[in-house]
Amino acid sequence: MTYRRIIPCLDIKDGRVVKGVQFLNLRDAGDAVESAIAYDKAGADELCLLDITATHDNRAIIVGLVTEVARHLTVPFTVGGGIRSIEDIRGILRAGADKVSINSAAVTNPKLIEDAAQTFGRQCLVAAIDAKRAGETAEGHPRFEIYTAGGRHATGIDAVDYARQITACGAGELLVTSMDEDGAKGGYDLELLQAITRAVSVPVIASGGVGTLDHFVKGATVGGAQGLLAASVFHFGELTISDVKHALHNAGVAVRPPLGSTMAPKAASPQQHQPQPQPTLISNPAEGTTVSESSEAEPTAPTAAPLGEILALLGDRIASRARTSNPSMSYTASLLNKGITKVSQKVGEEAVETVIAALAEDNAHLAEESADLLYHLLVLWQARGLHPDVVATVLKRRSGVTG
C-alpha cells in the first residue's frame, strides 16, 4: 500500500505566497513562513515552496526564507525555483530542505540531474514538468509540450518523452503541472497524468487545476498520482487538508489520517478504476539504493542475513555517515545535522505509520514501515551517542538470553 500525499504548494514572489490562473494574474495569499507553519499543523504530508520568478529574474532562490521555514516545519518540504547548479542544490539542502525541484535547468541541461543524483542521491531530486496541450501524437493521443521559465518559454519538447529521459538521468520524483488547468479549478489534467504515470516508475505529483474533493480522488484513482498538490483551494479556505483526506479515505484511497482523526486507511476497492500498480522508489535509509514498495505482494520468508546482523551493519553505516564532513552528501548525515529534535520527530512519525499499517492489516506495508522505524531509531541512538550494543544488553537481560 502506498499512501497518497497531500501537498500544499506555496508559490513565492518577493517572500509572499501568491496564486494566479495559468501562471498569470497573481494575487497575494499570505506570508510564506506563517502559511508553511499553518499547513504543517493542519496535517499536510509535505509542502512545496516554489520561487516562481527566480529563473525569469536570473537570480538565486531566497535561501534565507528556506532556512526560516525549515526551523518551524516537522514535515518534509521541497524547494524549487532558480536552481541551476550543484552548488545551488547543496545550498538549498543545507538550508534545511528535504528535496529540490528543478525545472528549467533540468530541461536545458539534463546532465545536472545526472550529476546531482550521483552527488546527493535521487531521493532528493524532483524534476518539475510544466506542460501544455499541443495537438495530438501520431497515434491520436493528446500531445503535451514542455514550457520553462515559469511557463514563459515553449520548448517544443514532448512531455512524456522528457519524463522518461529525466527519470533515466536520476530524478527520483516528477512534479507535473498542467498549465492549461492551473488555477482554473476544473480538475487535474487526467490524460496528462495517465500518460506520464504509465511511462515512468517513479512517483508523480499531480499539479494544476484542482477545485473540488472529487478532483483529488480522480487524480489518485484515475490519474495514478501518488502526490496531490494544490494551492488556491487551501490558501483561500475553500477546502481543508482534513476534508481532502476524508474524501480520499472514503473513496478507498490510502492516506495518513488527518490530525485528530482515528480513521484507519482503507484498501482500494477492486471495482474502482485504478492504474496498474507501479513500483514506488523511495529513499533507502541504508543509503545508496532504492526500495521498491508495492501493495501487491506480501513479504516472503526471510532469505537474507539475520535481523541482528543487518541492524549491526546498518548501525555501522550510520556511524560512518555521521562522521562525514559534508552533510548534504547523505540523507543520514543531513538528518543528523538537523539536530536531535528533528531526528526524534522522524522516529515519532515512523512509529505512527507503523501502527497505521498494523491496524490496516497490511503486512507488506507493515514490513516497509517497520524497516523505516528501525532505521530512524538507529539514527536517534547515534544522535544521542547510544551504542546499539547497550540496547542489546538490556534486551538480553530482560529476556534471559545469555551468550
List keywords for this structure.
single chain; 403 residues; alpha/beta; eight-stranded parallel β-barrel; two-stranded antiparallel ribbon; 14 strands; globular
Account of the 3D structure:
- The protein has 403 residues and is an alpha/beta fold.
- 40% of the residues lie in helices and 21% in strands.
- The chain contains 15 helices and 14 strands.
- The strands form two sheets. The chain has an eight-stranded parallel β-barrel with strand order 1-4-5-6-7-10-11-12, surrounded by seven helices. A two-stranded antiparallel ribbon has the order 13-14.
- About 12% of the residues have low confidence.
Number of helices: 15
Give the overall shape, derived from the CA principal axes: globular
Look at the helices and sheets and give the structural class.
Answer: alpha/beta
Spatial strand arrangement across the major sheet: 1-4-5-6-7-10-11-12
- Report the helical percentage: 40-55%
Give the mean pLDDT: 80
Strand content: 15-25%
SSE string, helix = H, strand = E?
EEEHEHEHEHHEEEHEHEHEHHEEHHHHH
